[in-house]
């Protein structure tokens, strides 16, 4: 046995002697309210310095930000608290000037303390305020680095007082539905009409249910049931935020009918009584159901407001405008997996001698109603100097709604995937290759007019939709056009071109614009058999910004869902948003629009977003980044089994990109699942990372890129790469794809790892055997099996052979001989061979 030294023992005794009289034991140190709670930040330097590291109680871990002044760290205390003290333990990169703020909703903030001239180290601040969220808002850094905190500790007491339960019936007169009705005289609505002489009754079977839509998410405290003679013996009172996923507030067994009140605790928009065992031989029958809510609670989410810290709004008179572009580009040029997100918004007018170089996670858009309202006499440039003239990794950036008169006659837009060029008027030519004509692998143009010639040069593939070009010079493998005036004629037998005169169905992407001094979002209408640009007289509707919850970094998923439940649309400002619950879009015609590649990261295995099977939802401008715990599905459009007809008003998914790995370990079984009929997928890149951080056959496991279960789904501009199983699996009827680009997973360890059903390799594009009608144009799949170049994949495409299955202009390529394809589609088409990187083609199948 080892004994402590006498000095240590005496010191311990002295510490005990100093306890106040009357204490029988030592009192534990006060625990921070913030420790272990959910923390978010405006940015994170890397995946090893996350926001959570500042509230984990470990002084050996830290949060650090990007290297700009306007950065913040916030913690969600989980409940309203009275805050008395905040302790900041700075690392060497500290804030010279900063504020500590508090909020009830993570939207509206109040200053608790302003600090100027801090010297770093440990800052202990006595404060007084009430709220659920506390943050450090950096004003000025003390060093050339960002802000860095070992620990951010918030002390005080949690407000445990419960709101009083209201006497009003929140369910009365609200829309109601049921699993069944006995007859037309006993509808679901009769249980919520306030009339004890009318009733709902069900069919005589178990289970049965009746539910009501309260109209918004509310705090629930009591449910009253008034049973008719046919009562429920065993039942559950349940709640839901979306009408699909239910949680149980109260389980009741052995009930005897009559009237009864049940205290409950929870929140939701929908309430239902779910019967599992009847008390009689008849069905279930309720005279009335009353729902009571708390008289105090979360205030409604406000629409409108400013656009947040990462939106840079300029006009032609803005001082040092070129420097603003240069500063952001210097930060973002090579930040392929960084956390910075930026949106430039240019007010209408003429901008002279500007060269806006666009780096990673940077978007530039005009604020006019038409592209020609915002005139740049200069350039909007993407080049590849950061990558030695190789443009194959110029991802995640965009340009929209501008007119560009290039300084030397041609604008350079040398991009790869996830870099849309939309609604642009180029008063000259467009060069899609990097300086020096190095490798390039793009890309997408829509609703744009290029007066001169488009030169793809080294671009391997490209898709252009509903546009006008003065000419098109060449291309490497797969140049596909639909609805493009001036497009070259199809020559896929001997060249790269596939051309359709029209796009069967399209809708242009929603965009932010200024109506005078008021921000609005323009939502274009659906077009059929479109050809050429939609402007200057684009058909559609304008929505004022106050109909949008302007989501800023740090907003919680709960607040986002509350805004949706209130009927607000969403405008995500640039930032990275960690989600601890699924965002549920349940209302028809909801617009969810992202600026500056706003990024959603689902944490702890939740799905990022679900869209109900409703008409006309518009999702646009988002990057969904898989979290480190496996999500089943990153984005789901429509509920499983959805079957409603949305042909008159389809849901659209535009410039919504997916990433599994690369920025750190990411896991998701499915990336995008489409259950709703008639959905339009207009430009997506669904990417299981082949490089970056957290990359490996199991490290960033992701089985499927796109799964289509809905009927009459159209994909225009479909880029899907590197999944462990099928990149695209199509089960819906009458599906159509115009342009598909794919690479198989580089890191398949051997042929056995991708062998299934006696077939070597999962097809890049698989149409289920049950499908009778499907058609696609301009499809390419490339293999680059660097882990095992001996793999010979059976085919790039696998489809049924019925008369309704038609594929046009498809190819497979072995990139430098790293693996091969035995056939193009099924057992048809020549094999690839050697290292020549020459396409094997099928012009028409069957």
UniProtKB/TrEMBL annotation:
- Cite the Gene3D superfamilies for this sequence: Galactose-binding domain-like
Compositionally biased tracts (Polar residues):
35-49, 177-186
Spans annotated as Disordered: 33-63, 166-205
Please name the SUPFAM superfamilies in this protein's record. Galactose-binding domain-like, Pectin lyase-like
Highest taxon in the source lineage? Bacteria
What are the protein's UniProt keywords? Signal
- State the signal peptide span: 1-28
Q: Which InterPro entries does this entry report, sorted A to Z? A: BG_Antigen-Binding_Lectin, FA58C, Galactose-bd-like_sf, Pectin_lyase_fold/virulence, SACTE_4363
CDD domains found in the cross-reference section: GH55_SacteLam55A-like
Annotated F5/8 type C domain residues: 14-157, 160-294
Query: What name is this protein filed under?
Result: Discoidin domain-containing protein
Species: Streptomyces graminearus
């Amino acid at each position: 046995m080892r004994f402590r030294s006498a000095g240590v023992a005496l010191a311990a005794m002295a510490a005990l002697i100093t306890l106040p009289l009357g204490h029988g034991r030592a009192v534990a140190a006060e625990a921070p309210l913030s420790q272990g709670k959910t923390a978010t930040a405006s940015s994170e330097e890397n995946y090893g310095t996350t926001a959570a590291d500042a509230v984990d109680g470990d002084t050996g871990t830290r949060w650090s930000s990007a290297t700009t002044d306007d950065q913040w760290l916030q913690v969600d205390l989980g409940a309203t608290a009275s805050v008395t003290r905040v302790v900041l333990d700075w690392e060497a990169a500290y804030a010279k000037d900063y504020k500590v703020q508090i909020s009830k909703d993570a939207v509206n903030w109040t200053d608790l303390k302003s600090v100027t001239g801090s010297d770093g180290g440990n800052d202990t601040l006595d404060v007084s305020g009430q709220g659920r969220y506390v943050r450090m808002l950096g004003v000025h850094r003390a060093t050339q680095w960002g802000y860095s905190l070992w620990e951010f500790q918030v002390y005080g007491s949690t407000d445990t007082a419960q709101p009083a339960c209201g006497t009003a019936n929140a369910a009365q007169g609200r829309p109601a539905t049921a699993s069944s009705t006995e007859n037309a005289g006993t509808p679901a609505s009769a249980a919520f009409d306030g009339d004890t002489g009318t009733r709902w009754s069900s069919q005589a079977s178990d289970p049965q249910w009746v539910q009501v839509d309260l109209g918004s998410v509310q705090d629930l405290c009591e449910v009253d049931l008034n049973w008719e003679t046919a009562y429920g013996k065993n039942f559950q009172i349940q709640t839901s935020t979306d009408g699909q996923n239910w949680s149980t507030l109260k389980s009741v067994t052995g009930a005897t009918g009559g009237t009864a009140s049940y205290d409950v605790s929870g929140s939701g928009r929908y309430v239902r009584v779910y019967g599992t065992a009847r008390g009689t031989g008849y069905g279930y029958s309720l005279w009335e159901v009353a729902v009571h809510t708390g008289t105090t609670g979360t205030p409604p989410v406000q629409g409108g407001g400013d656009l947040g810290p990462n939106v840079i709004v300029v006009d032609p008179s803005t001082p040092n405008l070129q420097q603003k572009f240069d500063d952001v580009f210097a930060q973002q040029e090579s930040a392929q997996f960084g956390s910075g997100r930026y949106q430039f918004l240019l007010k209408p007018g003429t901008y002279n001698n500007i060269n806006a170089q666009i780096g990673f996670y940077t978007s530039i858009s005009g604020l006019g109603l038409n592209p020609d309202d915002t005139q740049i006499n200069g350039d909007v440039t993407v080049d590849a100097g950061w990558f030695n003239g190789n443009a194959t990794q110029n991802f995640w950036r965009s340009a929209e709604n501008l007119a560009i008169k290039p300084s030397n006659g041609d604008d350079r837009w040398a991009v790869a995937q996830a870099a849309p060029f939309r609604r642009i008027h180029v008063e000259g030519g467009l060069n899609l290759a990097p300086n020096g004509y190095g490798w390039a692998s793009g890309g997408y143009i829509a609703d744009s007019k290029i007066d001169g010639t488009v030169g793809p040069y080294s671009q391997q593939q490209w898709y252009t939709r509903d546009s006008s070009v003065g000419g098109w010079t060449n291309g490497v493998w797969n140049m596909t056009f639909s609805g493009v005036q001036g497009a070259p004629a199809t020559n896929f037998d001997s060249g790269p071109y596939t051309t359709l005169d029209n796009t069967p169905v399209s809708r242009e992407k929603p965009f932010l614009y200024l109506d005078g001094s008021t921000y609005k979002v323009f939502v274009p209408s659906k077009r059929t058999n479109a050809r050429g640009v939609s402007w200057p007289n684009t058909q559609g509707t304008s929505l004022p910004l106050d109909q949008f919850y302007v989501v800023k970094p740090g907003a919680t998923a709960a607040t986002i869902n509350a805004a949706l439940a209130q009927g607000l649309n969403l405008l995500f400002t640039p930032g990275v948003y960690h989600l601890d619950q699924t965002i549920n879009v349940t209302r028809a015609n909801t617009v969810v629009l992202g600026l500056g590649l706003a990024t959603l990261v689902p944490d702890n295995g939740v799905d990022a977003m679900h869209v109900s099977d409703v008409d006309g939802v518009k999702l646009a401008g988002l990057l969904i980044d898989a979290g480190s715990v496996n999500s089943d599905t990153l984005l789901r459009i429509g509920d499983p089994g959805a079957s409603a007809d949305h042909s008159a008003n389809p849901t659209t998914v535009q410039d919504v990109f997916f990433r599994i790995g690369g920025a750190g370990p990411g896991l998701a079984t499915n990336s995008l699942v489409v259950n709703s009929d008639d959905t339009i997928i207009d430009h997506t890149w669904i990417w299981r990372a082949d490089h970056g951080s957290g990359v490996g056959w199991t490290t960033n496991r992701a089985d499927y890129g796109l799964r289509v279960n809905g009927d009459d789904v159209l994909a225009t501009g479909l880029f899907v790469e590197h999944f462990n199983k099928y990149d695209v699996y199509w089960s819906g009827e009458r599906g159509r794809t115009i342009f598909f680009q794919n690479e198989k997973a580089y890191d398949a360890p051997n042929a056995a790892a991708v062998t299934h059903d006696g077939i070597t390799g999962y097809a890049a594009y698989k149409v289920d055997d049950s499908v009778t009608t499907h058609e696609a144009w301009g499809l390419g799949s490339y293999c680059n099996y660097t882990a095992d170049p001996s793999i010979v994949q059976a085919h790039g495409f696998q489809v049924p052979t019925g008369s309704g299955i038609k594929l046009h202009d498809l190819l497979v390529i072995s990139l430098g001989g790293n693996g091969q394809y035995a056939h193009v589609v099924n057992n048809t088409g020549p094999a690839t061979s050697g290292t020549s990187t020459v396409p094997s083609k099928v012009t028409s199948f069957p």
